[in-house]
Specification:
The complex is a heterodimer of chains A (245) and B (185).
Chain A lengths: L16 H22 L7 H22 L8 H16 L14 H23 L2 H7 L9 H46 L4 H44 L5
Helix pairs in contact in A: 1-2, 1-3, 2-3, 2-7, 3-7, 4-6, 4-7, 6-7
Chain B lengths: L1 H9 L12 H133 L6 H23 L1
The chains are: A mainly alpha (245), B mainly alpha (185).
Amino acid sequence: MHLPAILPWGAADGFSKQMLLVLLSVVIIATFFVLAARKQQLVPGKLQFAGEMAYGFVRNSIAKDIIGGKDFMKYVPLLFSLFFFILVNNIYGAIPLFQLPTFSHVGGAYVLAGIVYITWIAIGIKKNGVKYFKLATVPSGVPFYILPIVVPIEIISNFVVRPVTHSLRLFATMLAGHLIVMIAGYGIEFLVSQENILLQGTSVLVLAGAIAMYMLEALIMVLQAYVFTLLTAIYIEGALHADSH
Amino acid sequence: MNQLIISAATEGGEAANPLVPNLWEMFVVLVGFALLMFIVVKFVVPMFEKTFAERAEAIEGGIAKAEKAQAEASAALEEYKQQLTDARAEANRIREEARAEGAQILADLKEKAAAESARITAQAHTQIESERQAAVVALRSEVGTLATTLAGRIVGEALDDDQRAARVVDRFLAELESQNAGAAK
């Protein structure tokens, strides 16, 4: 089911299949959208329409709806890149022969969550100055005697837990889905190779379950790309309007 | 790094920790994502935004044109309505004028007819009066002459002296008139 690894998975250096897929995703996304956007007709063709739908989804349903205001356009490139980068890399897991959602390796998820983490903190500081950390950790309208409890919670949840959950959510769902589909695959292989005909027959049940899980996985792949991007937009919005939260 | 190599070397075995990242993979994702961001910022977003802006402009231009046409049409309609109202008022005015003129002419004619009849009546009165006067005068002289002649015949005396005769007649007539006047009273 797997393409042969270019080098053993665990190799600390060397070029693996996962890296190849990451770079391939860049080529796929860039090619598709540049082709779709190239002709720039007022009445779009099929390809351009598909590209515009996809672009408009991130631009309007995520960036505009969440961040809003006049300056949401500044963050559209980041959100757009994140969404389709994650989407394509996740979908790999549902494509036969590829069968590897690249974010089931945790490194990529750390990198993206880290980029987002740095981005929203930078936006917050740029917008509100150093006061941003006070705005982000001391909620207004809370009685002073509760502050000693609330402030540490806010610090931990905003600055420590947030990037961790942001990255691990993506990584864990991809890894789990990947594992389930792989286990089902190997299970079927194992059952089919049994001598007992009844045992072989049970592989049909596993196959049915595997197909259902595969569908669920495909849904989760799309959903996680959306969730990651949506959370990014929410973090950016929170940093932009820290003074009104 | 040592730690990484160890964990990487043992990956696939029981000790592999999936939370420990492979640095090279992180590096590739970083580079790949940076490359994608570059392409998106440089080409994809500007191209789509340009198309969106052009389309919005085209649609808004179309709407503006349609609104202009609509405004022109309603202005023309307003003008026609105005003209129609004016024409109706004009027709009414003319009709009223004609009616008034007709009434005027009728009144004039009536007045003229009345005046004519009055004139004719007056003329007839005058004529009758003058004729009566003439008859009275003629009668008076005639009666005088006849009476004188008759009296002369009767008394045998010529009452030729006209002056005297006229005096007698006049006195007689005056008596007669006073008698008449007395009777009338």
